[in-house]
Amino acid sequence: MGNLTLITFLGILLEVFTRLPQGHNTKEARDTEEDTQEFYTVGVRLLHYRSSQGDAIVPVANCNIQEYNSNPKEQIPLRNYISYWKEYIQGNYSSPKGCLYLKDWHLYRTFPDHHVYTTPVYFSSDWLNEYWDELQMDDYRFVYMGPKGSWTPFHADVFRSYSWSVNICGRKRWLLFPPGQEESLLDYHGNLPYDVTASALLDIDVYPKYSSCCPPIEIIQEAGEMLFVPSGWHHQVYNLDDTISINHNWMNGCNVTTMWHFLQSELNAVQQEIDEWKDTMEDWHQHCQVIMKSCTGIDYKEFYNFLKVIAEKRISLLEKDPETKPLESICSDNPGLGPYHAVFDLSRISDVLASLISNPDFQKLEIDELSPSPKDLSSHLKEIINASSLWLCFCVLELRKSSRNII
Question: Which domain of life is it from (predicted)?
């Protein structure tokens, strides 16, 4: 069992959870010898599961405890969590340890050679994970595993990115609020609620705008179903059954402007918080960037590097075999990145980069150390976009001529 692969591991869990009868949440069903033996088999196999680094260590949140607007996490061995999960079900979904939820597990990053799954083509244009893969430092691909009753508090996704979620097994209940509705959910301190279903929101003295909030869009996500969450949609999620899901945060040329606007609003919030020290604190603007990065995970200089890395990869594609590559890609059934897509990406980067360069807060930073300089990169982008656009127009004309000749 020591050679049990991750694919086998997920397959075992999927097989067991999907084979349990509809009433397996009841005490009578859980007590059947067959169901207990099935879950026990999973537990035994996972007890012997080893990665090349030893026991896989996973992040686990306690859904019963509020820590600010989230749940406290601890790192434990995967086999310990599976043992807990088994005991939690056998204990009528109750445990002195609370309701524990394995979430934000970087399975893809931790075991890159296992190729556990492939990103659906609809979501394959993903600058966020493309950037972090290039740096080999982080990613925003996660596996979630939790029992019935585990949940994720009210939030919007990192950087106001898109997200997608697919249920390998189990069911989720989503409460989604379109952008702007969160303003009606702020308390008198300007803070969002931890639990959007809490009765405390009915207190007009604490949540003065709650009555103007529209009801959430409620979605029940079944096993095998995939959900796309647009940028800026706040949401709260419950596991209605024992559930395993894969979740990605992602962004591309269609929402990079949203990310840039979000970063500006985050910096503005930081600046307001420490405005009283603006005239007395040395490098006040740089301190604002440090605080912003600690809160959001990125600052303006890294955002520039993010744009640069994606731009350089698109430029590399367009400069490779310039006389044949565009035509081949246009005619290909390959859903991968083609020249039109690359030019679109570069045009979106160019627009955001121009806004970044003209931003007063960015100009106050030590940007001379950036290579290439933002202005040089901007000029190069415009040259590439213009040249590529002309060549692609020529390719389209040639294709039309060829089509007429065939007809």
Answer: Eukaryota
Whole-structure pTM value? 0.83
What is the tens place of the pLDDT at every residue in 224-263? 899 999 999 999 999 999 999 999 999 999 999 999 999 9
Quote the DSSP letter at residue 245: E
DSSP 217: E
Tell me: cis bond preceding 372? Omega within 30 of 0 counts.
yes
Indicate whether 242 and 108 sit together in one domain. Answer: yes
- Mean pLDDT for the chain overall: 84
Within 10 angstroms of residue 369's Cβ, the number of other Cβ atoms is 8
Rounded Cα distance between 66 and 130, Å, is 33
Q: Which neighbouring-strand residues pair with 169?
A: 244
- Between the CA atoms of 71, 75, 78 and 80, what dihedral angle is there, to the nearest 10 degrees? -90
**Same-domain pairing of 166 and 304:** no
Q: Answer yes or no: do 240 and 337 share one domain.
A: no
CA 155 from chain centre, in angstroms, equals: 12
266-306 pLDDT, tens digit per residue, is 999 999 999 999 999 999 999 999 999 999 999 999 999 99
- Residue 229 and residue 81 in one domain: yes
| 217/196 Cα distance (integer angstroms) | 13
Query: Do the Cβ atoms of 236 and 154 come closer than 8 Å?
Result: yes
Give, in order, the Cα–Cα distances in Å from 167 to each of 114, 173, 177, 305, 399: 20, 11, 21, 34, 42
Residue at 215: amino acid letter: P
Question: Domain of 227: which CATH number?
Answer: 2.60.120.650
Structural contact between residues 164 and 248, judged by C-beta atoms closer than 8 angstroms: yes
Please identify every stretch of the chain with a pLDDT value under 70, giving residue numbers as ranges: 1-54, 321-335, 391-392, 394-407
Total structural domains within the chain: 2
Q: How far is CA 190 from CA 185, 187, 208, in A?
A: 9, 5, 11
Sheet of 141-146: strand order equals 73-77, 57-62, 100-105, 141-146, 243-250, 162-169, 226-229
Alpha-helical runs (H) found in 241-365: 256-273, 284-296, 300-319, 325-331, 339-357, 360-363
Which residues have C-beta within 8 Å of that of residue 156, sequence separation ≥ 6? Answer: 182, 232, 233, 234, 235
Over the stretch 121-153, which tens digit does the pLDDT of each residue have?
889 999 999 999 999 889 999 999 999 999 999
